[in-house]
Amino acid sequence: MTAQIINGRAIRDEILAGLKQDIEELKQQGVQPGLAVVLVGDDPASKQYVGMKAKKSKEIGMYSEVHTLPSTTSQDELLALIDKLNNAHNVHGILVQLPLPAHIEEKAVIDAIRVEKDVDGFHPVSVGNMMIGDDCLLPCTPAGIIELIKRTGTDIAGKHAVVVGRSNIVGKPVALLLLRENATVSVCHSKTANMKEITRQADILVVAAGRPGLIPGDYVKPGAVVIDVGTPVGDVQYEEAAAVAGAITPVPGGVGPMTIAMLMSNTVKAARQMLANG
Ligand code: GUN
Fold first, then answer.
1. Buried b / exposed e across 41-77, counting CB within 10 Å, b at 16+?
2. Active site residue 97
3. What is the 3-class SS of 204-264, one letter each residue?
4. Cystine design at 143: which of 14, 53, 170, 262 (Cβ 3.0–4.6 Å)?
5. Residue (of 122, 24, 218) closest to 205 by Cα position
């Protein structure tokens, strides 16, 4: 079997084209969705992600502001900026790029973001709303993964979905979203015994372990949908897995572009909700 290659860039572009129209309509109602991205320090990978987020938001007609702060910024200074952004009428979404420098407590920063502007979906209230299935801003990478799976034509309900990895950013939330879609969900992690036995049962296999090449081809069930969240190198041994899978995401060009599309989608949603609520 030769797997269908899931083209995350093409799907991102389709989603962004739709959002561009939504933004045009919102502008006609007097609201331009706005995204504020905050970067503390000069980690090269983070800088690149932030640059991409700002570029894409401008391309689709969004208002965008980037706050680049030195690595010596204190927690209080960062919290003061978040307070300002929480109250800024032209900002509907706030994203603080992670990781933060060690002297800043990540939780304190995430907790400070107004839930209505939490376009990362990391605030505990957003996480709680997702858990109980209430309407909320969903975390971008997990939401992007669900979108990719759906666009392969896969009906998630009733499928066995196996998630490898249990991070707060990807593993845990994607497991919850798959459950919301009525999959039967297993979560594997570094202490899992006989992982191969479990992954080989997966109709949908999402790998977010952050361990390059962790999953060889013989861990994959023939015909499975395989989503590789590893970056910049995949967690799945691509050539081997592609020979077995029904559909597979490449790295790069699979999950990564979807994270941005979902961030833009969340910002438009936040703007729309703020317009509706006055
Ligand atoms: N760092 C790596 N991924 C992410 C993400 O999705 N959001 C934020 N804020 N920081 C990240």
1. bebeebeebbeebbebbeebbbbbebbebeeebebee
2. yes
3. EEEECCCCCCCECHHHCCCCCEEEECCCCCCCECHHHHHCCCCEECCCCCCHHHHHHHHHH
4. 262
5. 218
Q: Which domains does the chain have, with CATH numbers?
A: 30-114 (3.40.50.10860), 140-255 (3.40.50.720)
Q: Which of 22, 56, 118, 120 is catalytic?
A: 120
Cβ of 267 below 6 Å from ligand 1: no
Distance separating alpha carbons of residues 193 and 174, to the nearest angstrom: 21
Question: Residue 48 catalytic?
Answer: no
Alpha-carbon distances of 148 from 14, 92, 182, 249, 254, rounded to whole Å: 12, 26, 16, 9, 8
- Quickly tell me which residue has 């991205």 as its tokens: 37
What are the pLDDT digits (tens) for 82-141?
999 999 999 999 999 999 999 999 999 999 999 999 999 999 999 999 999 999 999 999
CA nearest neighbour of 249 among 260, 236, 240:
236
To the query of whether residue 55 is one of the catalytic residues in this protein, the response is: no
For the chain, the straight-line distance linking the first and the last C-alpha, in angstroms and rounded, comes to: 54
Q: In this structure, what DSSP letter does residue 99 have?
A: S
Question: Which residue out of 43, 98, 255 has the highest number of ligand 1 atoms within 8 Å of its CB and is therefore the one to mutate?
Answer: 98
